[in-house]
Specification:
The chain is an all-alpha fold and 165 residues long. It starts with a helix and ends with a helix. The chain is elongated and about 45 Å long. It has a single domain (22-163), classed as Ferritin. It has 7 helices and no strands. The protein has helices at 2-16, 18-22, 27-51, 55-82, 92-102, 106-132, 138-163.
Length: 165
């Protein structure tokens, strides 16, 4: 009887949370973080448009704003379908980066911004690739759809880092 009871508990836990079984945080957490990430990229992109030391950096800022505004709408649509909130805030690390960049301009701004964008987009690509591979519906489809744009941003940021050295 004890073994049967333990088996039922294990099966219930797995069935109750596919995300737990797959090692993830769940679809609502994914979309919430994705929206905060988009909010972050939009805010930082706006800073790059204003404070970038080169035309290429200001163009990258415009690209970030345009692409992440579009991405945010796509994620918000999925969030609404899941009954998840659409947060207005940014990721904590982006808030720290904003404060750091606030006092910078020109080449100093460009170096710091490009470096942050490389690191941030590498992390985002890892998260989105993991989500895309989970095969659990709208969030995995969304992640797969947005990966090419994230990779494009990483490539641009890496190029800007190389040209700024």
């Amino acid at each position: 009887m004890r073994q049967k009871f333990a088996f039922v508990i294990v099966l219930s836990a797995i069935a109750a949370s596919p995300a737990m079984a797959a090692g993830g945080d769940g679809p609502k957490d994914f979309v919430g973080d994705a929206i905060k990430g988009d909010n972050s990229e939009i805010a930082l992109g706006q800073m790059a448009q204003r404070s970038g030391g080169t035309a290429a950096m200001r163009d990258f800022g415009r690209t970030l704003v345009a692409d992440h505004t579009k991405a945010k709408q796509q994620v918000a649509d999925v969030a609404h379908g899941l009954g998840a909130d659409v947060p207005d805030d940014v990721m904590p690390e982006a808030k720290s980066e904003q404060a750091k960049l606030q006092s910078m301009s020109g080449a100093d701004f460009d170096r710091e911004f490009a470096s942050y964008m490389v690191d941030d987009h590498k992390k985002d690509i890892d998260k989105f690739a993991k989500e895309a591979g989970m095969h659990r519906g709208p969030t995995s489809d969304l992640a797969a759809k947005q990966l090419p744009t994230l990779r494009k941003h990483l490539s641009i940021a890496q190029g800007l880092m190389k040209s700024g050295k």
